[in-house]
Design brief:
The structure holds 2 protein chains of 2 kinds.
Chain A (H helix, E strand, L loop, with lengths): L1 H11 L3 H23 L2 H17 L7 H23 L18 H17 L2 H11 L5 H8 L3 H21 L4
Chain B lengths: L1 H15 L5 H13 L1 H22 L8 H10 L7 H27 L2 H13 L7 H12 L9 H4 L11 H18 L13 E6 L12 E5 L4 H4 L4 H4 L1 H7 L12 H9 L26 H11 L9 H8 L7 H9 L5 E2 L5 E5 L5 H11 L11 H6 L13 E9 L8 E10 L8 E8 L9 H15 L5 E7 L3 E9 L3 H9 L9 H14 L6 E8 L10 H12 L3 E7 L7 H10 L4 E3 L3 H10 L1 H5 L1 E12 L4 E7 L19 E4 L3 E10 L8 E9 L8 E8 L13 H17 L9 H8 L12 H17 L6 H23 L4 H24 L1
Parallel strand pairs in B: 7-8, 7-10, 10-11, 11-12
Antiparallel strand pairs in B: 1-2, 3-14, 4-13, 5-6, 6-16, 8-9, 13-15, 13-17, 14-16, 17-18
Classes of the chains: A mainly alpha, B alpha+beta.
Chain lengths: 176, 841
């Protein structure tokens, strides 16, 4: 988004409020994404903090600060998980990208949400991740490519695969 | 060809996600126009996206923790020379957001059980947690709840129930400790209750109160119970206390028949088989085949009636405990979220602010049409009733007129139970002053879903056609940032307004607070002293940037309201539609809250009822009903759960209550249990309001009074049409809510009563017909609601016993010790069973 680049420029010029706005604009989405990715709120918070601090100190203004933040958050979070999982083999599983929001009561979700969760569980991790970045966080295919390291074409294919599988699953479950 | 097809299939996805070029978009549009199958696929994917967003939306807003934010912002602090100032200003900023962020941060980063603890603390009203943000959190959660799980704690945490200041935090653990220890004291292998029944006291009741097979709440005393050989407590002998005491937690009224009981005591009742549903079977918690992984676990915990996996049974049982200072009625509300029956002798007055909104009905309608049961929190019974017309004559001498009717209740299934309908009708507007409307339109990303913004634009166009040339309109939009799109413009220049309207596009986050900051100055700029000044919010109500808690946003609005600028909210969208926030906004802004689900609804609101929406004739309208305990045993108000006002505040004109627009009708219903032999008027109804002519005249306080007639209709069928309509609509809403009081009835009987009422419809008003067909669709949904699981049933029973206990304590003041002991004993057993069941699950 252009707003982000503007905010960063203002930040470089010494506008004290600019970076705070940038944080407010992105922290929620980044935290959601990272938490889903690693299934650990603390690690997610650390990763997001790292990414934001990096951006604050950096002299470069990325093309898409948003994608940049997602990418750095992703790398930090996955690094941490890898490190920790060496110590605790159990948690290696948590490194799988996860779309189901953490901390939502299953009972509260209701039938429909339950069905969505089930269908999501069936999707491959990379498909799930791309779908979440697009549908939940509103990133463009290009930005997602930048975050995940896939090509833009691959991102489109992954997302299409995810959405059509999800839709047909929900259709056969009678929810949609 | 296959390749083409494949491409088209992929293009559908990309088009839905806004990743197509104009040329590709054209291909998609053409293909969709010609291919029905493709359209179905397109819709299915669109809905899947919406569901995914809803699923994620339920996890709420997350923020960085305070320390981390501080570190990030320190890292972002620029040049060293200004550093100290920066630090200072950040410190200030952090302080401001501090309270919120800390709490929210804590809330967000905690585990599920912690979250529940928060909710519990909130509901006990611990002072430290009266802070505002967590409340929002709880409310938000409520909005997403499905009504199925009766025992859901969060569902029980009612928005109004944050009071009850007690030493709960200190008391509860000890109470819990006692409880936890109790089962251990029960000798192992002691006979179950159903086996050692020697003496059975039937507390009630003639009518079935639960949908499940648990029609009788029995108090069974073992042979060595103090009940068996003690004289009847004094309190029972006193007439009034007996009446009150014998009432059970349900409207089916615990009928502790002294004579019968005494007889039973003399000759112990023969051992009777346990009533169905009382004995806990070896519950089979196996999930149906075909479910896998997470769902299976979930399914199992659902069936076991846990709140969620990892359900902490000790903590839950603690929550169910009565609280030291809690009134029985507050306890009932905490448990079931419905208004209880109140003893007229104990509390003869019932006071509330009028609610003119109808949004709840339209929200529920949309849910049902989508084939889903609306969440309980979304159903406000009074708004259902108020959606329909009672056709009262408009008053000419006063601004408001009172109407009172009574007739035997059709749906209570008990004798001596009547329904009282209180109707308020406002005068017609006459010549209205000019309208100065400031439209605050949500253009955040979520408004793209399901064409929400398109519907808003259509609604505004409808509104414009109903306005006069001297009315004026300004438009502010908000997403991440707020923006003035149109400065105040008279309707005479409607082209300019329409152009501004069509330029709106959705994207970004939702900064409602920022929008309000821009909108109010504009409203002040176009203020019409002799006219009507309103800010209209069109939104799906999900604020996520800036202040996002209702309290913070609401306080600002209440201030503006005093300057004569009112606020109305119009909800659109589904799923993450935050109905509660919008209702609260309108409530604080002294305006109305509507939900626009279709263009037809927009037409109904703006074209047909423009005056009743925008021309307020009475402010702070409150009703007080004073029941005569000589005639009325007890009463319950149907709906208005979040509109209650303290009785003593009825004549306090500083208290904010309901606003009534020109021509408006507002209805309130009470179910009352009458003394069989009593004669005379059961109650007197008072209405107090401030009469307002226009924004610059000083309001004048008016109080009207009318007794409920001493003689009502002799049966339900001979009651007036509007009375039967209101009664049936309320019954429908209660069924939909899964209200405690709807457990005894069936929707089929409501349908039966409703059918003939379609005659009230006219050619351009088909509301009743539409409602009947809605009920037909809703019936299957309501009937498919899962039955309570065994442990849920036990928990429900525990709640009932606790409620009973509380009432006994209050009414008998120590005299009914034996009954209390018996109840306590029963509860210990119940708790033990719940624990056992939990262990097995």
């Amino acid at each position: 988004m252009n707003d982000d680049s503007d905010l960063l420029k203002r930040h470089r010029r010494g506008d004290r409020g600019a970076f705070a706005l940038l944080v407010a604009n992105h922290e929620g989405a980044l935290l959601r994404y990272a938490t889903r990715l690693v299934g650990d709120i603390e690690i997610a918070q650390d990763a997001v903090q790292d990414a934001l601090m990096n951006l604050a100190r950096s002299d470069v203004i990325p093309d898409s600060p948003q994608a940049w933040l997602f990418r750095v958050t992703r790398n930090r979070a996955l690094d941490r998980i890898k490190k920790e999982s060496r110590m605790r083999a159990k948690e290696a599983k948590a490194a799988q990208p996860e779309v189901i929001p953490v901390g939502v009561d299953p009972l509260e979700q209701g039938e429909a949400n339950c069905a969505v969760s089930v269908q999501l569980e069936k999707l491959p991790p990379d498909v799930r991740e791309a779908l979440a970045l697009k549908v939940l966080e509103g990133l463009s295919y290009r930005q997602i490519a930048e975050v995940t390291g896939h090509s833009v074409g691959k991102v489109g294919t992954l997302i299409h695969q995810g959405l059509s599988t999800l839709a047909s699953g929900l259709r056969s479950a009678g929810v949609v | 060809m296959t390749n083409n097809k494949h491409n088209l299939d992929e293009l559908l996805t990309h088009s839905l996600l806004g990743e197509t070029s104009p040329a590709e978009e054209k291909i998609v549009t053409e293909a969709l126009a010609n291919d029905e199958k493709l359209r179905a696929e397109y819709e299915a994917r669109k809905e899947s996206i919406a569901m995914l967003q809803r699923l994620s939306g339920a996890s709420g807003d997350v923020r960085l923790s305070e320390e981390r934010r501080a570190e990030v912002l320190t890292a972002a602090t620029p040049a060293a020379s200004t550093q100290w100032r920066a630090v200072l200003s950040w410190a200030a900023a952090i302080c401001i957001i501090g309270v919120g962020v800390v709490l929210l941060g804590v809330l967000e980063s905690e585990t599920e059980s912690d979250r529940r603890e928060q909710a519990e603390k909130l509901s006990t009203g611990m002072p430290a947690f009266e802070a505002k943000l967590p409340v929002k959190r709880v409310l938000k959660k409520q909005d997403y709840q499905q009504p199925a799980a009766d025992t859901n704690v969060l569902q029980d945490v009612a928005p109004l129930n944050t009071r009850v200041p007690t030493a709960e935090s200190k008391d509860a653990p000890s109470a819990g400790g006692k409880v936890a220890g109790a089962p251990k004291n029960t000798p192992a292998g002691s006979p179950t209750r159903s086996q050692n029944t020697v003496n059975q006291i039937q507390l009630y009741s003639p009518a079935p109160m639960d949908t499940q097979a648990d029609p009788v709440l029995t108090l069974r005393a073992a042979g060595d119970s103090p009940l068996a050989n003690q004289e009847y407590p004094e309190a029972y002998k006193r007439g009034e206390a007996r009446e009150a005491l014998t009432r059970g937690p349900s409207g089916t009224h615990a009928r502790l028949k002294p004579d019968k009981i005494l007889a039973e005591r003399r000759a112990p009742a023969p051992r009777s088989p346990a009533p169905p549903g009382r004995v806990v079977s070896e519950a089979n918690f196996e999930a149906p085949a075909g479910l896998s992984g997470g769902l299976e676990r979930r399914e199992r915990s659902r069936r076991a009636g846990y709140l969620y996996e990892g359900f902490d049974v000790d903590r839950y049982l603690q929550w169910v405990q009565p609280r030291p200072q809690e009134k029985p009625s507050a306890m009932f509300f905490r448990y079931w979220g419905d208004n209880p029956f109140v003893d007229a002798a104990q509390d003869p007055q019932s006071t509330f602010g009028l609610d003119v909104d109808t949004a709840s009905y339209t929200v529920a309608r949309k849910y049902i049409r989508m084939g889903k049961l609306p969440p309980k929190a979304a159903i406000r019974t009074e708004e259902f009733v108020n959606y329909f017309s009672s056709n009262y004559p408009a008053p000419t001498a006063t601004d408001l007129a009172l109407h009172v009717d009574r007739a035997p209740s059709r749906f209570a299934h008990r004798d001596n139970v009547e329904l009282i309908k209180i109707g308020v009708k406002a005068r017609e507007a006459g010549e209205r002053g000019p309208l100065a409307l400031t439209l605050l339109i949500d253009v955040s990303g979520s408004m793209r879903n399901g064409n929400r913004l398109g519907l808003v634009k259509d609604a505004v166009r409808t509104l414009l056609t109903a306005l006069r040339p001297d009315d004026s309109v300004a438009i502010v939009t908000f997403q991440s940032q707020a923006q003035t799109v149109l400065t105040p413009t008279p309707i005479a220049q409607v082209d300019k307004i329409l152009t501004a309207l069509s330029s709106l596009a959705a994207g970004g986050s939702t900064n409602l607070e920022g929008g309000l900051h821009l909108a109010y100055p504009l409203a002040e700029q176009q203020f019409q002293a002799k006219g009507h000044n309103r800010v209209l919010i069109f939104s799906d109500g999900v604020a996520n940037v800036g202040l996002t808690d209702p309290e913070g946003i609401l306080n600002g609005i209440a201030e503006k309201r005093r300057n004569g600028i009112y606020l109305d909210s119009f909800g659109v969208g589904m799923g993450n539609h935050n109905d509660h926030l919008l209702e609260q906004l309108a409530d604080r802004g002294d305006g109305s809250c509507s939900y626009v689900d279709t263009l037809a609804e927009a037409t109904r609101i703006f074209r047909k009822n423009l005056n009743s929406v925008f021309v307020t004739v009475a402010k702070d309208a409150k009703v007080q009903v004073e029941f005569d305990p000589k005639v009325v045993v007890s009463y319950r108000q149907i709906g208005y759960e979040n509109r209650a006002i303290a009785d003593k505040n009825f004549r306090n004109d500083a208290i904010d209550a309901g606003e009534v627009g020109a021509g408006h009708e507002v209805v309130a219903l009470y179910e009352v249990e009458l003394r069989p032999d009593a004669v005379g008027s059961p109650a007197v109804v008072r209405l107090r309001y401030k009469s307002i002519e226009s924004a610059d005249t000083k309001p004048e306080v008016v109080e009207l009074e009318k007794p409920v007639p001493a003689e009502g209709a002799k049966d339900f069928d001979s009651a007036p049409d509007h009375f039967r309509l209101s009664a049936s609509v309320a019954a429908f809403a209660e069924h939909l809510r899964g209200s405690y009081w709807a457990r005894s009835g069936h929707l089929a009987e409501v349908l039966e009563e409703a059918q003939p009422l379609t005659k009230l419809d006219t050619s351009d008003d088909q509301r009743v017909t539409e409602w009947v067909s809605l009920m037909q669709r809703g019936k299957a949904l309501i009937e498919s609601r899962p039955e309570l699981s065994d442990s849920q049933r036990l928990i429900d029973e525990l709640k009932k016993n606790n409620y009973l206990r509380k009432r006994y304590e209050e009414l008998a003041a120590g005299e009914a010790k034996d009954v209390l002991d018996e109840l306590r004993k029963q509860n210990e057993e119940l708790e033990k069973k719940i624990r056992e069941l939990h262990k097995k699950g």
